[in-house]
Amino acid sequence: MQSKYKISLLRANLLAAAVALSLWIPSAEPAAAVMMWLSIGWLLITALILDFSHRRSRGLPWQMLAGTLLLGLIASAPDRHALLIWAWGAVFMLPQDRWAAIFNGGAALVSCLVLMPHIPLPEWLLMTLSLSILLLLAMSRTHQLLTINGVIRQRLRLIPGLNLWAGEQLLRDLIREQTRSEREAIHADVLIVRVRRRQLWPVAQKLCELTYDFENVYRLNSTTLATLMLSKTPGEAASRRTLLVAALPDNVLTQHTPLMDIELASLTLDELSHFPASHLREVA
63: which of 3, 139, 178, 245 is 20 to 30 A away, CA to CA? Predict the structure, then answer.
């Protein structure tokens, strides 16, 4: 069955690339064979551990490793591996931070210079120009997809199976729940939870476990979570907060605010993220 996040095709492509490289090894020189084995190892490991999660940052340097291996393959046998120069288009289709893109851009330029002695000058100039256009198109397409995916992720669970959502979803839910609270006389509290960066995901999972199935947890930024707690009365809400607070780490900071006291007309995600915080044990 295909993965929910459609990574099966990417995994298949990585495995196919590993198989294709392995076919070159018997006729490769020792230096080129070493680079091929390293590249095959990277492709296989990446394919095996490939998974989708918003907890992983696209800025991790594995894109730089891909660029380094590609440069090594071309430089180890430029006369035999010149065709791999076009693989830079695939490298630049990977989501990556600016510093990783600069590194890979430099590596692509070095690859072109390595091939220069092996290709007539007119052909080399045409190849370099064509590659530059290809890389620009790849980066443009990647930027477009990241923008689209960013909008989509605002309406997706950040961790499959948990009621954990992006902060933008909270802004939409606040409007709906405020109207519902007025209509059905429900007491609603917005609980802001500040954590250390390394605690974000464990605490988010804990909050999802401690809240009801119909309540959600929201990631406002890398150190701030929020949850919208619905109770029948303020007294019940206070009791629930006390139990929830007791189950969280002691170094967490929180602030709770009744939903009806929040002015939603001009509320922004940044304002929510910077709500005043008090020590956890003082929240109840």
Answer: 3
